[in-house]
Amino acid sequence: MKSSVIIFPGSNCDRDIDVALRKFGFKNQMVWHNETKMPKSDLIVLPGGFSYGDYLRCGCIASKSKIIKSIIDYASSGGLIIGICNGFQILLETGLLTGALLTNKYLKFICKNVFVKVNNSENKYFKNIKKNVLELHIAHNDGNYFCTDNELKSLEDNNQVAASYCNNNGEIDEENNPNGSIKNIAGIFNKKKNIVGMMPHPERVIEKNLSSKDGSYFFENLLNNMN
Amino acid sequence: MEVNEHIAIEHGLKKEEYNKICDLLKRAPNFTELGIFSAMWNEHCSYKSSRIHLKKLNTKGKKVIQGPGENAGVIDIEDGDAIVFKIESHNHPSFIEPYQGAATGVGGIMRDVFTMGARPIANLNSIHFGSPQHPNTKNLLRGVVRGIGGYGNCMGIPTVGGQTCFDESYNGNILVNAMTLGLVKKNKIFYSKAAGIDNPVIYVGSKTGRDGIHGASMASAIFDDKIEEKKPTVQVGDPFTEKLLLEACLELMAGNSIISIQDMGAAGLTSSSIEMASKGNLGIELNLDKVPCREEKMTPYEIMLSESQERMLIVLKRGKEDEAKKIFDKWNLDFAVIGKTTNTKKIELFFKKNKIAEISINILAENAPVYDRKWKKTKLPQKIKINKDVYKKLKITEVLKKVLSLPNISNKQWIWEQYDHTVMGDTIQKPGSDAGVVRIHETNKAVATSVDSSATYCYAHPTTGGKQIVCESWRNLITSGSKPIAITNCLNFGNPEKEKNMGEFVECLEGINEASKFLDYPIVSGNVSFYNETKDKGIKPTPTIGGVGLIKDYKKVISMNFKKINNLIIVVGKTEGHVDQSVFARDILNEKKGPPPEVNLFNEKNNGETVLKLIDNDLLESTHDVSLGGIITAVAKMAINGQKGFELKKLKGLMNKFEYYFGEDQGRYIIEIDPKNLSKAQNLLKDNSVHFDEIGTVVENEIAIDKESILHIDDLIESNTNWLENYMEK
Q1: Given A49, A204, A209, which is nearest B554 (Cβ)?
Q2: Calpha distance B487→B490 (Å, rounded)
Q3: What is the distance of C-alpha A169 from the center of its chain?
Q4: What is the domain partition of chain A in residue ranges?
């Protein structure tokens, strides 16, 4: 399977996701934001980081990059896209996903392990995954997911919530909401479920000696579902 | 503007220094030249008070590739890899403007590291604040932590370790010391020494603005009531541009076009151009019209003294300009040929077609003033005599809870959770451990690193304190399973013109040097920060030591968390019950006198090397060094981190239990051993003549001290974790 990771100026998890994709068997290539045409890919990843310093709204300037049009075309033809952290913010700014990410509830950057319950219904990312409560890692200042009541209803009705912060038993409650997100939302799909945006970084937790190895279930499962 | 003695003094120069300038130039300097002298001859850049003492330091060793004198030190970690590292202070700016001061401190030290061709792989910081009750402390702490995080997180470099201390001596002068480690191939290290004549001098990075003018001079002066007026001397950081600069520089460095490279740090273009020329024994010619400026009508004086961040100066091989420019264009960074190397051994500046300054490089560099300042020895204080009746009123469990909740001992998670400590995907041991550990990307090796200071000990007796910090750094690396290789130091002191402060500097350095030699733990880089003084009140002497050690197999890294019930708890090293200057004496008994614990370098080395052997032989489950708060605090932290309890046996000897458990004797470790490994471990310890005491066992969740005093582990967790968050958020 061929994957492509887009590098924006200020991306800083591009190498990490490249390492993870290759480790689990993807043939990965890096694509510079100034390109206008996406190379042939089975998966596109928008990595974490601080594109353009996030000096405007997070992800806003990157969403106007030259490569974006080609990504939108790819998305409308049903191609798989993952946006992680800043990549999630960029997807929201392009309009491919719904809602917004506000500054964390306690106005602080948060870097720690969290548990998320993933949506393992019909979608390429989490269907058939070995565990549906994963210990992943977050590192962000603006991960407080917000949307209007109507948008939330639509997300829930269409089963578009991809991942929710929870405790290690999968219970979703306020105590286990690290950043104030509506309904503990950690990640969402678009309607067709070919696009997922999420704040947690699966690529940082892919080995026992790192803080968790649960990210490896995500990549292994995705590759299986794609084959 | 005509220059006279009065203007020179306003620039922070002394009358005699101004006269010396006139003698050397055989004329009065013009205004721009005076600016250059004031930048090069201030304490921060010239090391004029410290230089004769720094020369004595132990800077050589088998693993040292580059010692002090370059942008950072470099050590060999085998297989063709090297680690570039350094610690630097940004104290004065952080006190004036905590967010920007701390942020640019982090930015500056990372630049020092990638200037040498290394990709930064880990950041650490040592921050000291005034008393928690002081009205400024909370805001300063919040600003500094946000600034460190703001810069490091955006750069995508993990912050893997640090320390935070509170003491009223920092009420008027906080300390912000930032350290960075970078990874480079041994044969791709870049230096600042210029070479060849007529080679182009290139300016890259951000544009030059009016920020930070006289930053280095400000850092060489004491504070008074007018501190607000100094805000414009603080630089403003732009981590996004620095991230681009990092990638662009590393891309250029992958080729073969750079002769030398130097970041523009303190004293900006002045110091970087002069240092490059001085090291290459060359001259340099700069055309200031070509310098990319952010603001209009900047004068040569402002251009030369600006400390705008995220800028580099490069001497390229002739003919490589286009190749280099292409890379900087890709990353959207300014690129300008602003001058060339010459054979004149002078710095010559041109502006609007006129030569506006001309000074021999050796006048600025080698002829800079050097002072052998007077200093006073600190006598070893007499031991205090504690009336044993005092102990009878104390309950050991209550004292333990109190100690764990003290600002200097309590958990600092509120701070380090704001730092991205896992980006780059190689963090094996996170902050809150004895040392941070990062894997060398795509290998089995890892480096352990920590920062330490002990101002209380240094203040009580500088020589002992100096030795102690080096040993503590060494222990923190050992407990992670690494072999300590080398250190960097950040020497934070008061006013060197006062004999007491100068004495503290000289004697701390003697202690550091003695320990460094004995442990074969050389000093490869560092920085001196004097004049940490406000309105006549100076800080306690606070040398900070940053250590780096190597782990051959990252899977062997062990943490301090207790692992399994029924495992045995053993103290390695002899316990004498030294309570003077301990946390117990100072914060529980309110007794602040007496000498710090003695440091026995022989035992220190032997105990440490033996613990490392135990780890190498897979005989330990966890380990932690004994430092502030003594044995029981160390054991409690292992229990808290492992969420287990412990049971301590009744003491055998005659020693009072408070002295035994809270004394801060040096050279000790707590180790957790599976009973099946006990005899092997005992043999190894005995074979190496290391003293050890078996003191207890790991249990499920109860804390039992000599069967009488009982607590639940949750009580300790609560005592240890809540202080900082309550302090900051409520």
Answers
A1: A209
A2: 10
A3: 22
A4: 2-226
Chain B residues with CB inside 8 Å of A204's CB? 422-423, 425
B243 by DSSP, 3-state: which? helix
- Please indicate if any CB of chain A lies within 8 Å of the CB of B239: yes
What ipTM is given for this predicted complex? Answer: 0.96
Alpha helices in B257-395 (DSSP H): 268-280, 300-305, 321-330, 361-364, 389-392
Question: Alpha-carbon dihedral of residues B256, B259, B265, B266, nearest 10 degrees?
Answer: 170
Section B464-478 average pLDDT: 98
Pairing outcome for strands B523-529 and B622-625: unpaired
CA distance B434 to B494: 29
At B227, the pLDDT band (50, 70, 90 cuts) reads: low
Taking the CB of residue A121, how many other CB atoms lie within 10 A of it?
10
Q: Which helix (H) or strand (E) is B154 found in, with range?
A: helix B137-155
pTM of the predicted structure, to 2 decimals:
0.96
Is the pLDDT at B220 greater than 90? The verdict is no
* B437 bridge partner residues: B429, B448
pLDDT(B218) > 80: no
Closest-CA residue of A relative to B427 is: A210
- Residues B93-131 have pLDDT tens digits of 999 999 999 999 999 999 999 999 999 999 999 999 999
Helix (H) or strand (E) holding A16: helix A14-23
Nearest-angstrom CA–CA distance, A114 and A178: 8
> What is the three-class DSSP state of B594?
coil
Give CA separation, A80 vs A72, A128, A217, in Å.
Answer: 11, 17, 18
Tens of pLDDT, residue by residue over B654-693, are 889 999 999 999 999 999 999 999 999 999 999 999 999 9
B53 is catalytic: no
The answer to whether the CB of A83 falls within 8 A of the CB of A162 is no
* pLDDT tens, residue by residue, B418-428: 999 999 999 99
B558 contacts chain A (CB < 8 A) = no
| Whether the predicted pLDDT of B225 surpasses 70 | no
| Model pLDDT, residue B127 | 98
Rounded to whole angstroms, the Cα distance separating B502 from B541 reads 10
Of A9, A48, A50, Cβ closest to residue B332? A9
Kindly state the tokens that stand for A84: 């992680």
Average pLDDT, rounded, for chain B: 94
- CA-nearest residue to B438 within chain A is A210
How confident is the model over A10-46, as pLDDT tens digits? 999 999 999 999 999 999 999 999 999 999 999 999 9
Alpha-carbon span B110 to B119, nearest angstrom:
9
Burial (CB count <10 Å: 0-12, 13-18, 19+), residue B15: exposed
Q: Does B554 touch chain A (CB under 8 A)?
A: yes
CB B270 within 8 A of CB B213: no
Query: CB-based burial of residue A35 (10 Å sphere; 0-12 exposed, 13-18 middle, 19+ buried)?
Result: middle
> Which chain A residue lies closest to B156 (C-alpha atoms)?
A12
Residue A19: helix, strand or coil by DSSP? helix
- Decide which of 3.40.50.720, 3.40.50.880, 3.40.50.2300, 3.40.50.300 is the CATH code for A2-226: 3.40.50.880
Distance, in Å, from the CA atom of B212 to the CA atom of B269, rounded to the nearest integer, reads 12
Beta-ladder partners of B625: B669
Residues in chain B closer than 8 A to A20 (CB atoms): 425
Q: What is the pLDDT of residues B521-572, one digit of tens each?
A: 999 999 999 999 988 889 999 999 999 999 999 999 999 999 999 999 999 9
Q: What is the reported pLDDT for B730?
A: 78
CB B697 within 8 A of CB B639: no
Q: Which residues of A touch B106 (CB under 8 A)?
A: none
How far A210 CA lies from chain B's nearest CA (Å)? 5
* Pair of tokens at residue B321: 């300009």
Short-list B188, B191, B366, B189, CA closest to B281: B366
